[in-house]
Design goal:
This protein is 25% helix and 36% strand. Helix 2 packs antiparallel against helix 3.
Length: 161
């Protein structure tokens, strides 16, 4: 069970497909009436300013032990910023992912939909992208390249929690 009360939550860097039903069960409890998800999936087409890129697949890599610590940090921050959020789960898949595969999932639950779970889930994905050492390489019609994301942790983010 993921609980703010005892400061436990479910997070994982996984190599197998992310199961959304499992994610629902991780943030469900008798005091929960609303669950909000963010799921990021592998898209097959990316539109840039001046061109259209087709993607065949992605390879995700992570500095696993540090990434798991950063997922815990994100959950802790969610609990601090959104006190009505009761349960949090963060999952990031690594390895080879095909078009349509779920790459990342953030779930936040609370007693009611109006308890901040929508903004908490958005905060969770944005913060995960900012501080977790997870990278992707895109393979497509024009070859392959490492995608520069929004990974920009601050000195404070890199302090032990």
């Amino acid at each position: 069970m993921i609980s703010k009360k005892d400061n436990h939550f479910q997070s994982a860097i996984v190599e197998e497909p992310i199961d959304l039903n499992q994610l629902v069960s991780m943030v469900t409890a008798p005091d929960v009436g609303g669950i909000c998800f963010f799921t990021g999936i592998v898209r097959g087409v990316t539109y840039l300013e001046d061109k259209r890129l087709e993607t065949d697949h992605l390879i995700y890599e992570a500095y696993r032990s540090m990434a798991e610590q950063k997922l815990q940090q994100v959950a802790t921050e969610i609990y601090q910023k959104y006190p009505a959020v009761k349960h949090v789960s963060l999952m990031q898949r690594i390895g080879r992912l095909e078009i349509g595969d779920i790459a990342v999932a953030v779930a936040c639950s609370s007693g009611h939909r109006s308890d901040g779970i929508f903004t908490a889930a958005e905060y969770g994905i944005n913060r995960l992208k900012e501080i977790a050492p997870i990278w992707k390489k895109e393979f497509g019609s024009e070859g392959s390249e490492w995608v520069v994301g929004s990974y920009h942790p601050t000195t404070q983010d890199n302090q032990p929690q």
